[in-house]
């Protein structure tokens, strides 16, 4: 069974991207990482009032850098040591590899999303699907039984063939009472899927 897992804020600590910009500043002293961080919103491409994708490659080009070269350098740096993975990501993904077919299903520009996944050792060799459309539309098109794990509360949007689990890894528990399982750590997600997959 396919278990689709979101990347940003589900497996990958997107809020730590400032560290990537700081590393770029070390590689390219002419680049000011603080300015890059401040200016990143100029490179957000919005699809609606709440959903955007960061065109990081366009931002790198605006700084006079070659995105492919920079991504390659960063993937070979210490940043790829697993520090961007949420706690428990490795064990969760390992379980899915053993018991199911994990697939990363992530919204955003393909090169940037694949770069972020490349910083996560636990994701090596896993299929990655990137998109700039609704995940619900994608899952409706394939129309196969499976699961989606995501940090966004999109369970009501999904086709009936897809079961949904939401993770909230920032620890905020205020006022959330969804109609689907809500988990607060990837270790909880591992336990949840151990039970689910043992029944299937």
Question: Can you tell me about this structure?
Answer:
With 200 residues, the protein is of the alpha/beta class. The protein folds into two domains: 2-13 and 85-199, 3-Layer(aba) Sandwich (Rossmann fold), CATH 3.40.50.1000; 15-80, no CATH class. It has helices spanning 17-27, 33-39, 56-62, 67-75, 89-99, 110-118, 135-142, 186-199, and strands at residues 2-5, 44-46, 52-54, 101-107, 127-131, 146-150, 162-167, 182-183. The strands form two sheets. The protein has a six-stranded parallel sheet with strand order 5-4-1-6-7-8, with helices on both faces. It has a two-stranded antiparallel sheet with strand order 2-3. The radius of gyration is 17 Å and the shape is globular. The chain starts with a strand and ends with a helix. The mean pLDDT is 94.
How are the secondary structure elements laid out?
Elements: E1 2-5, H1 17-27, H2 33-39, E2 44-46, E3 52-54, H3 56-62, H4 67-75, H5 89-99, E4 101-107, H6 110-118, E5 127-131, H7 135-142, E6 146-150, E7 162-167, E8 182-183, H8 186-199
Parallel strand pairs: 1-4, 1-6, 4-5, 6-7, 7-8
Antiparallel strand pairs: 2-3
